[in-house]
Amino acid sequence: MPSLLCLLPILALQAQQLKTTELSLGAAAALADETFAGAELGLAHRPSSESRIALAVAGGVASPDEQAAVRAQLTLQVLLNSTARSGAGLYAGVGASFLGVRGAHGRGFVALIVGVEQAPGRRRGWFIESGFAGGVRIAVGWRARWFPSWWRSS
């Protein structure tokens, strides 16, 4: 019986949802009729261990006229291996994207993404993301995460 009492707190911690806030910095490009390239800032929240709501906003230029442009994307993502402290975690998502180019009307797109991130159960790591949102979109960067105090992410 004493060994069961020692095991109960560990089981209770495992039953808790791992809620996390994330900040990412990187570069993004979208290849389509109007190519976009720029720096991207992302903010995300994991309401549970297996899901993430992410907003990414990028400022840069759009070709062929090299006009100033902004690109925003909001996605709901499903995470695999979200608590892994080593190796890679995979994710996929669906949402909406918007492209605004100086001197032109803004356009919205459906966004579909897949990505891989380094050790999603740790405080920081790289990510690579690809998908479709008005063309082929690619993003790479660094992600920082803030976990609850009970989570030891070292």
What keywords describe this structure?
154 residues, mainly beta, 8-stranded antiparallel barrel, 8 strands, elongated
Description of the molecule:
Strands 1-2-3-4-5-6-7-8 form an eight-stranded antiparallel beta barrel. It has one helix at residues 2-15, and strands spanning 20-31, 36-48, 51-62, 67-80, 88-101, 107-118, 124-132, 136-146. With 154 residues, the protein is mainly β. It is elongated, with a radius of gyration of 18 Å.
Task: Tell me the helix content.
Answer: under 10%
Annotation field: number of helices: 1
With strands numbered from the N-terminus, the spatial order across the biggest sheet is: 1-2-3-4-5-6-7-8
Largest sheet: 8 strands, antiparallel, barrel
SSE ordering: HEEEEEEEE
The multimeric state of the shown protein is single chain
Mean pLDDT: 89
State which percent range the strand residues make up: over 45%
Tell me the Rg in angstroms. Answer: 18 Å
Give the end-to-end Cα distance, rounded to a whole number of Å.
32 Å
- Poorly predicted ranges (pLDDT <50, ≥5 residues)? none
Number of strands: 8
Globally, the shape reads elongated
> Which structural class best describes the helix and strand composition?
mainly beta
SSE order and pairing:
Blueprint: H1 2-15, E1 20-31, E2 36-48, E3 51-62, E4 67-80, E5 88-101, E6 107-118, E7 124-132, E8 136-146
Antiparallel strand pairs: 1-2, 1-8, 2-3, 3-4, 4-5, 5-6, 6-7, 7-8
Short overview:
The chain has 154 residues and is mostly beta strands. It has one helix at 2-15; strands at residues 20-31, 36-48, 51-62, 67-80, 88-101, 107-118, 124-132, 136-146.
